[in-house]
Amino acid sequence: MSKNESQQNQLLAALPNYEFQRLIPHLQTVKLTVGEILDQPYETIEYVYFPHQGMISLVAIMENGTTTEVAIVGKEGVIGISTLLGSDCSIHCAMVQIAGNASRIKVDLLKQEFNRGSRLQKLLLLYTQARLTQITQNAACYSQHLIEQRLARWLLTVHDCVQQDNFSLTQEIIAAMLGVRRSGITKAANLLQKAEIISYSRGNITILNRAALESASCECYWIIQQEFQRLFRFNV
């Protein structure tokens, strides 16, 4: 693998070449398929994943089986960050929602590079702070904002991950990720569709007007975006 092949993951692309060269022998490119589970709650994590495309949801699963998404990870991030913070597992399920490729590396090998105190370490710690912002702001969003605002915020984040206007996600999946009834998602999606902000049919979503979608979203999208920009402005 060359550095150009990993450019789609922003963390790997930001590494100095000499650090990336140390990782190359241990990085493996894999395809991520829809519905694939990368990490199960409380199970030992074997690999850390750096997505190139697609979208992975970090999902909290309750005892009764209900789910709520706590964070979205795309090409800006990494799956398995808890292993670098002293844990060998996560309490969340990491589920692929939109397919794509990723670079993966065994946890022990990445830890060796992380423990050098190199630029990789700094970037991953900054990303951890950004991820915490996303998780905590999402928690506030779930309790404070209307479903249509939350749906708009969520679609903006998905759009950022996939970098294309059209993608496939069913109402069942969206409802499960936002922790609401499907009827609530149907109503919210209809409002956005009537305003000609999105087009939605049989699980196919098209963003028609990104600026209008931003206006329909709550402030949480911008708070999270600004924190990512603040943390990485001089570091990527």
What does this structure look like?
By secondary structure, the chain is α+β, with helices and mostly antiparallel strands. It folds into 2 domains: 4-140, Jelly Rolls (Sandwich); 146-217, Orthogonal Bundle (Arc Repressor Mutant, subunit A). It contains 9 helices and 10 strands. A 4-stranded antiparallel sheet has the order 2-6-4-5. The protein has a 3-stranded antiparallel sheet with strand order 1-7-3. A 3-stranded antiparallel sheet has the order 8-10-9. The longest helix is centred in the middle third of the chain and has 26 residues, at 119-144. The radius of gyration is 18 Å and the shape is globular. The two termini are 21 Å apart. The mean pLDDT is 92.
